Task: inverse folding
DNA sequence: TGTATAAATGAACAGCGTTCAGTAACTTTG
DNA sequence: CAAAGTTACTGAACGCTGTTCATTTATACA
């Protein structure tokens, strides 16, 4: 009979409903203010119900963090059509920063907050992060094969590039650019990314 | 009479005592677990007393953040004796990372946590951070004057370098290097710093 | 329709930052 | 020296938080 199937479906649907409510509340008010009670209220369930679908708040944030990675990967996808490998890496940097500034709460989930990484569900090698990192490593390797990029270890180059764009994003999101005038910050960030690219690239340009 | 002076002195001393207790608790258990009640218990005062000396928890964390900057500046001071400007910048990077890994809680206060920057006491241009940034800018300018460094805007170069070392520190402290084997992380970080230096430097080496 | 099972509730718990009426200690005055 | 005035400190209380679990409600099966 189809009752078991329907129940299973409803379970999945409510779980999904909770996650959507959580994502809404989270992006609206941020981590500290996104309480279980607010999420429950938003979807018109009691707080206790949420704990029938998730072991704790960290598990919810881990799921949201996975979805955030989906969004970032979606933003990266169009860059695969860029032929010039150096230009592709440059665009990846700018896309990354734009994502961080446009969707600060999602960026926090992915790369700053501790909570999502404390969830039991996070696997040993952090699959979501690993995937994105390998994507960058591949781009670096292509630029190296075209003899357009520093010939140092591609992993180290990729790490350097990732850490600098993350550093820009994290310092900005956590209010550490107060020594710059607000209006010049975007140009400084963009200039910094381009400086990094210029520094790692060789040959034409 | 000296009574007023003694009282004033005692006030300053208790304030200092609170800050020391707060620093101890904070470095031992971290931000989330460092509660006002624990700090009060440590110094054998009631929680309410702390609020006679600080407007809120943020104000305490802001003071601790200032002291943390003092420590970092102390670690930077010996580097002034290094004559080679490029080597000096390189050592600054390694010193910065060593500080972040050796004193993670202090680093969190200075560059990651939001709380210290929400205090009323933080001035518009974040004097502590600004001072350290200018220190780096000066080093970059000297390397440029010796014609040993990229001739791009020194502020942009300094920002690039700072953001990449901060990125390395922040990603590591917030558990975002899970895709690497724990034992290879220190070498990756060191390699990344050296790659950055190599990339910005020109001429001899 | 009655019983077994599953799902949802919401009060309760311990802990958080913060406040403030009340108490204790100390200083000044008569 | 005692009384009055001032300052310092306390700790219970408030409204939050994440989380648990006995109880209630809704559904499924006999």
Result:
């Amino acid at each position: 009979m189809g009752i078991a199937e329907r129940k299973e479906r409803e379970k999945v649907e409510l779980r999904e409903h909770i996650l959507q409510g959580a994502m809404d509340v989270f992006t609206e008010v941020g981590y500290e203010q996104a309480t279980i009670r607010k999420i429950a209220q938003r979807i018109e369930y009691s707080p206790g119900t949420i704990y029938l679908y998730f072991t704790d708040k960290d598990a919810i944030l881990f799921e949201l963090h996975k979805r955030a990675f989906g969004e970032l990967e979606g933003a990266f996808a169009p860059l695969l059509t860029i032929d010039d490998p150096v230009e592709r890496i440059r665009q990846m940097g700018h896309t990354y920063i734009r994502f961080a500034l446009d969707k600060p709460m999602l960026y926090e989930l992915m790369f700053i907050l501790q909570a999502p990484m404390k969830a039991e569900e996070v696997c040993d090698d952090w699959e979501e992060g690993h995937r994105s990192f390998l994507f960058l490593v591949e781009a670096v390797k292509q630029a190296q094969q075209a003899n357009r990029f520093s010939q140092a270890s591609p992993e180290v180059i990729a790490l350097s590039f990732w850490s600098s764009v993350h550093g820009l994003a994290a310092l900005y999101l956590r209010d550490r650019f107060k020594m710059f005038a607000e209006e010049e910050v975007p140009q400084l960030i963009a200039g910094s990314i381009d400086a990094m690219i210029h520094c790692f690239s060789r040959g034409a340009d």
Q: What stands out?
A: Residues 7, 45-49, 52 of chain A lie near DNA strand C (CB under 10 Å from a C1'). Chain A touches chain B through 42 residues (CB under 8 Å).
